[in-house]
Design goal:
Helices cover 0% and strands 41% of the residues. The chain is an all-beta fold. Strands 1, 3, 4, 5, 6, 8, 13, 14, 15 and 17 form a ten-stranded mixed sheet that branches. Strands 2-7-16-9-10-11-12 form a seven-stranded antiparallel sheet, with no helix packed on it. It starts with a strand and ends with a strand.
């Protein structure tokens, strides 16, 4: 396949993500999952480390003037999206990521339909592809890949877990998370091991929405319905380290 878009995060230490590629999605409204974090555009929540990595860091450091819908309102983090800068239909989308460890942490690499939020296309009617979600030390050796669409979203989404064969926590090292997307087919892999494939046959009688461009997202959430809240053992700052993100065109 042909590489058509990438970010290798090769800038100077302390510099922000490339604004030609990434947009900060900010706010503290719970994000539909009763999450605790306040997403900011501050460099201490998302910056390059000078060694070829992006660091998305959750901190116990309230943003000035923050008003949070849920939680104690003293946790900041970052959510980066490519909406308006890059979107694509079909291909391979992958990232090499080291996730943080700790109860209540929720790192993710995912995609949303490019028309999300426009008119009648509210999530999940526009589609969601979760390439990687991990819920801290609640399931330290496990990540999840999921597909959400109209009539099969939330707890009814198409989802499957992948566990490291030796039981090690994902936070110990970098891993490559990818989805290979073809017409009528989505295949999820970790470190080259394909662990699930989804097709329209998985949603009989429902609309297969995965036939239009999607944009990319990277974020580190804290708290929420799935991971639960952080506790006294959750160490802050907590960092999700991203070596690269790449998108390839299908042949």
């Amino acid at each position: 396949m042909r590489l058509v878009w990438s970010d290798e995060f090769s800038g100077a230490a302390g510099s922000g993500p490339d604004p030609a590629k990434w947009v900060h999605d900010t706010g503290a409204d719970g994000w539909g999952n009763h999450e605790w974090e306040n997403y900011t555009d501050r460099p201490d929540n998302a910056s390059l480390d000078g060694k070829g990595n992006l660091e998305i860091t959750a901190r116990r450091a309230p943003a000035p003037g923050a008003h949070c819908a849920v939680g104690p309102c003293d946790i900041t983090s970052a959510r980066l999206i490519t909406r308006g800068t890059f979107a694509q239909r079909y291909g391979r989308f992958e990232a090499r990521i080291k996730v943080p460890a700790g109860p209540g942490l929720w790192p993710a690499f995912w995609m949303l339909g490019n028309d999300e939020g426009e008119g009648a296309c509210q999530d999940p009617k526009c589609g969601e592809i979760d390439i990687m979600e991990q819920v801290g030390s609640k399931e330290a050796d496990t990540v999840w890949g999921s597909v959400h669409g109209p009539g099969y979203s939330g707890e009814q989404g198409l989802t499957k877990d992948y566990r490291l064969p030796d039981g090690r926590p994902f936070s110990d090292d970098f891993h490559v998370f990818a989805v290979d997307w073809r017409p009528g087919k989505l295949s999820f892999s970790v470190d080259g091991h394909t662990y699930q494939t989804r097709t329209p046959a998985d949603v009989p009688g429902k609309e297969w929405i995965f036939d239009h461009p999607f944009f990319l997202l990277l974020n580190l959430a804290v708290g929420g319905d799935w991971p639960g809240p952080p506790d006294a053992t959750t160490a802050f700052p907590a960092t999700m380290t991203v070596d690269y993100v790449r998108a390839y065109a299908a042949p």
